[in-house]
Amino acid sequence: MSSAHGETFRGRVRSRLKGIYYSRTCRALAYAPADAYDRLRGRRGPLTPPRRLQYVGRAADFEAVGADWRERLVRDHGLRPDSDVLDIGCGVGRAAVALIPELRTGSYEGFDVVPQFIRWCRRAITSRHPRFRFRVADVGNRQYNRGGDSPAARFAFPYADEAFDLALAASVFTHMEPDGIRRYLAETRRVLRPGGALVCTFFLVDEEVERMLPLGRSAFPLDHELTDAEGTRYRAADRRVPEYCAGIYERPLRADVAAIGLEVEAVERGWWSGREVGPGAPYQDLLRLRRPA
Ligand SMILES: C[S@@+](CC[C@H](N)C(=O)[O-])C[C@H]1O[C@@H](n2cnc3c(N)ncnc32)[C@H](O)[C@@H]1O
C-alpha cells in the first residue's frame, strides 16, 4: 500500500524502526545492561567504546573493521608512520584506535557531527595518545545530528590549507546528500597537501547497479529517487531520512571530482550492490582521489 508520497506502509515502518535504533535515549536504555555487564566483568578495553555508542556493525566489529582499515591504508593507500591524517566523520574512533601503533611520528585529526562520539574519543583516546585529536562539527544530518547548525554544503573544515597527507571518509558519504559531498570534497582538496590523497567510500550507482537494484540483491533497497537542494539526483533507502543510506550516481560524482581538482586514482567495487566482486573486496565502493602534486 502506497501513501500520497509514494511511500509504502513497510517503508514507513522501516523508517520508524530506524529512528528508534538511532535514538540516543533508546540506545542508552537498551544497551545499559550489556554495557554495565561488560564494565563489571572487565570485558571492554579502555579504547573500545560502550555498545550504546557503536552504531555501525556488531559490537565485535569495532576492532576487526579498524584493523581492516589500517591494513588497507598501509598496504594500498600510502599511509606512513609519519603521515598527517584527517578522519572525516570519525565516529567513535574505529580507525583512530587501529592507527595508534601505526602513526608513530605522524598525527591524526578526526571530526564528527555527534558530540557524544567526540567526547568519548577525547576521553578514551586523546587522554592516552595526545597526537590523536578530535573535534565536533555542528553540521546538520537528519540521521546523526538533526538540529545541526550548518548545512554540510556550506561547512568549512576547521583546518589550515595543506595540513594533511592522507584523508579518510569511511562510510560517511553514504550518509550525506550530493551537495554536502561536493563541499566536503572541495574542502578535502584544500586541506590536503599537493600529492595527498582521500580514501572514501560510497554506494555508487552506475548503469550496472541501476539494472541490478530492482532484482533485490543489494544489501538494502535504494528505492527512492531524490534531489538535493542544488538539483542533483541521488537514491536513498528512506525518503524521510535519506541520510540513513544514500546512493550517489557515479557519472555526476566523477564530473564533480574533476571540477574540484581531484583525480580518481583507484576504484574498488564493493559487494553491497550484489554484483560479482573478487575476494577481499570491500563492502562499500572505495575510491582513492588524489590532489595532483
Ligand atoms: C557509519 S558511521 C562511520 C563512522 C566511522 N567513519 C567509522 O568507520 O567507524 C558515519 C559517521 O559519519 C558521521 N557524519 C555524518 N554526516 C557527517 C558530516 N556532515 N560531517 C562529519 N561527519 C558526519 C556520523 O556522525 C557518523 O559518525
Structural notes for this entry:
Strand 2 (107-112), helix 5 and strand 3 (132-136) form a beta-alpha-beta unit. The chain folds into 2 domains: 1-43, no CATH class; 48-290, Rossmann fold (3-Layer(aba) Sandwich). Residues 1-5 have low confidence and may be disordered. Strands 3-2-1-4-5-11-10 form a 7-stranded mixed sheet, with helices on both faces. The termini are far apart. The chain has helices spanning 9-22, 24-40, 61-77, 94-99, 115-126, 178-191, 207-212, 250-260, and strands spanning 84-88, 107-112, 132-136, 164-169, 192-202, 204-205, 224-227, 233-236, 246-249, 263-268, 285-290. The chain is of the alpha/beta class and 293 residues long. It is globular, with a radius of gyration of 19 Å. The structure holds S-adenosylmethionine. S-adenosylmethionine binds at residues 56, 88-91, 94, 112-114, 117, 137, 139, 141, 144, 152, 170-172, 175-176, 180.
Task: List low-pLDDT spans.
Answer: 1-5
Just name the CATH architecture of the largest domain. 3-Layer(aba) Sandwich
The average pLDDT value, as a whole number, equals 91
What's the total number of strands? 11
Instruction: Give the terminus-to-terminus CA distance.
Output: 55 Å
Quaternary organisation of the protein chains: single chain
Assigned CATH class of the largest domain: Alpha Beta
Q: Tally the helices.
A: 8
Rg: 19 Å
Unique ligands: S-adenosylmethionine
Kindly report the spatial arrangement of strands forming the biggest sheet.
3-2-1-4-5-11-10
How many structural domains can be distinguished in the coordinates? 2
Structural class: alpha/beta
In the CATH hierarchy, what is the superfamily of the largest domain?
Vaccinia Virus protein VP39
State the share of residues found in helices, binned by percent: 25-40%
